[in-house]
Design goal:
Keywords: Membrane, Transmembrane, Transmembrane helix. This protein has 4 helices and no strands. It is an all-alpha fold. The chain has one domain. It starts with a helix and ends with a helix.
Length: about 130
């Protein structure tokens, strides 16, 4: 039997790599700069956070089954805290957060969140 955590890591890497390539493709087609707004750092940070948060949830899934939803929300709070510490000061240098800056962080965040939510939902259904 395969380890669900390893499967999740593989899915997360494939998903965020595909989304990153599509994101760059859209930027290219629209003639926007490809590697500005800390886009690479954003995808890497979001991938690492998705894997770490999911790993913590995976380790705690049986012991804290009824609190997994709250732990998941705490993970989302952590992601936003990282955004405000790492990305926000850079994006706010010109007193304006441009749509491209917002997208550089938010796109990988949303896709990671969807993957985490789907995986957590699957676990909760199996633990019943």
């Amino acid at each position: 039997m395969k380890n669900p955590f390893i499967n999740f890591i593989i899915k997360a890497v494939i998903l965020l790599t595909a989304v990153f390539c599509i994101h760059l493709g859209i930027l290219h087609v629209l003639n926007f700069p490809l590697f500005e707004n800390r886009i690479i750092l954003s995808y890497i940070v979001n991938l690492v956070l998705v894997i770490v948060i999911f790993g913590v949830l995976y380790l705690l899934k049986r012991k804290y089954k009824s609190q997994l939803g709250f732990l998941f929300l705490a993970g989302s709070f952590l992601k936003f805290a990282v955004f405000f510490m790492v990305f926000y000061p850079f994006y706010k240098l010109d007193n304006n957060i441009a749509k491209l800056e917002f997208a550089a962080f938010f796109v990988p965040y949303v896709f990671g969140l969807i993957l985490e939510s789907a995986s957590l939902s699957k676990w909760l259904n199996k633990l019943d």
